[in-house]
Design a protein that fits this description.
Strand content: 25-35%
Order of helices and strands: HHEEEEEEEHEEEEEEEEEEEEEEE
Strand order of the largest sheet: 8-9-10-11-12-13-14
Radius of gyration: 44 Å
Low-confidence stretches: 142-162, 346-357
Distance between the termini: 147 Å
Number of domains: 4
Structural class: mainly beta
Mean pLDDT: 76
Length: about 425
């Protein structure tokens, strides 16, 4: 029996022996209970259990720029195609993880319960790797919104057969599956890849011939990449393409981990053409510490010259031992020129030449030498030698010949 305001006619005879005030209080309580039960029944009737449906993406055009997609789905009470909002694991005011599936993708949709902060719109919240036909030319999903837009290639998954025919195969659309599942059929690589093949990958892959333990970021069109490789090379690689690209390699391991690259704790730079280093304000320093035993080697195998130019100050070189300048061509002169193209030679300096330690000039077989040090100048030709210092000139020769009218020796006073 439902409790309504008509209960008055039923209950008053029963309660005739009770005090009038108590009877009215009890009646009010029963009426209030009836109203509460009616409200609860209405709410239960309105409540809907949220179902999850599959849908296929039909369009990703979104003028609101909010992640809304247009889908086709068989959902009771909805039209065959409709818009669904975007749900993400991490989202908010200008931050979060944002990625929208392309046309043809299969997504999961649901409708959250309505509340003060959300309407009754459906949302998409996940995608499915659904089995579909793929070939060497096309995939079912397109990178865009209409049939005429760019079609994704699957050349990394499937190649043409020997007859050049476009072999059709069934794939689930997993990015780079033959590397992810290589050798052991275990997905030991974690990938975020966009349709043009640009991707971020974290690998902990166990292969039959070793391990692939790395983090990689690579562009899809040209293969530019940054690789942080723990195994097998123990290095960091930055390169701008495939083949023989410009690249920088920061290498930790040596011969034991990478037999093809035996130099541990090294940095290597390769460029197809120019390498430029420019400092706008500060200096440029290249320092080799005292524990190093290797040479500093600057080699030019090309046709251009090696130039050292300073605009506003001196060029200073110093060494605790010999400073050697040689020419690799037999009988080729070594000259030092001033700005106005005058030649400086040890025997006829037209401008001041500052020697801080020790300098040698010699021919290829070193039989002819000019040595300049802080005490003087020495000229050598085989067994013949002349030494000029501040206080004297010393000759060590087989013969001393002067072609002149006379020669005079004087003692300095």
């Amino acid at each position: 029996m439902a409790f309504t305001n008509d209960l008055t006619s039923v209950t008053l005879p029963i309660l005739s022996k009770l005090a009038e005030d108590e009877a009215k209080d009890l009646l009010a309580a029963l009426v209030g209970l009836d109203e509460s039960l009616t409200t609860l029944k209405d709410e239960i009737g309105k409540a809907q259990i949220s179902n999850i449906y599959t849908a296929r993406v039909k369009s990703i055009v979104d003028g609101d720029k909010s992640g809304v997609i247009h889908v086709e789905a068989d959902v009771p009470g909805m039209s065959p195609s409709f818009d669904v909002e975007c749900a993400s694991t991490y989202a908010g005011g200008g931050y979060g993880f944002f990625s929208v599936p392309c046309r043809g993708a299969i997504v999961l949709i649901t409708r959250p319960q309505p509340s003060k902060i959300w309407n009754t719109q459906y949302v998409w919240f996940s995608c499915l790797y659904a089995l579909s036909e793929e070939s060497a030319d096309t995939r079912y999903q397109t990178y865009g919104d209409t049939e005429g837009e760019k079609v994704l290639t699957a050349k990394d998954n499937q190649e043409r057969d020997d007859d050049g025919k476009n072999e059709i195969t069934l794939m689930h659309g997993v990015p780079d599956p033959f590397n992810v599942y290589a050798d052991n059929d275990k997905p030991q690589q974690f990938i975020w890849m966009c349709p043009n093949k640009s991707h971020f990958i974290m690998s902990d892959k166990k292969l039959a011939n070793g391990e692939q333990d790395f983090i990689g970021l690579q562009s899809g069109k040209t293969g530019k990449k940054i690789m942080i490789d723990e195994l097998p090379t123990d290095s960091i690689i930055i390169q701008d393409g495939e083949g023989d690209p410009n690249r920088i390699i920061i290498r930790t391991a040596g011969l034991d981990k990478d037999p093809d690259n035996p130099d541990p704790n090294s940095i290597e730079m390769y460029a197809g053409e120019n390498i430029s280093v420019e400092s706008r304000q500060g200096g440029i320093s290249v320092n080799v510490k005292k524990d190093s035993e290797a040479d500093i080697d600057i080699s030019n195998m090309g046709q251009g010259a090696v130039k050292l130019t300073t605009i506003n100050n001196d060029v200073i070189t110093s060494t605790p031992r010999n400073f050697i300048v040689s020419s690799g061509i037999q009988n080729q002169n070594i000259t030092i020129k001033t700005e106005d193209d005058r030649v400086l030679t040890p025997t006829g300096l037209t401008k001041k030449l500052v020697i801080t330690r020790h300098v040698k000039y010699y021919n290829t077989d070193q039989t002819q030498k000019i040595t300049i040090d802080t005490d003087g100048i020495t000229l050598e030709n085989g067994q013949q030698k002349m030494r000029m210092t501040t206080g004297y000139v010393e000759f060590d020769v087989d013969a001393f010949i002067v072609n002149a009218g006379s020669i005079e020796f004087k003692k300095k006073t």
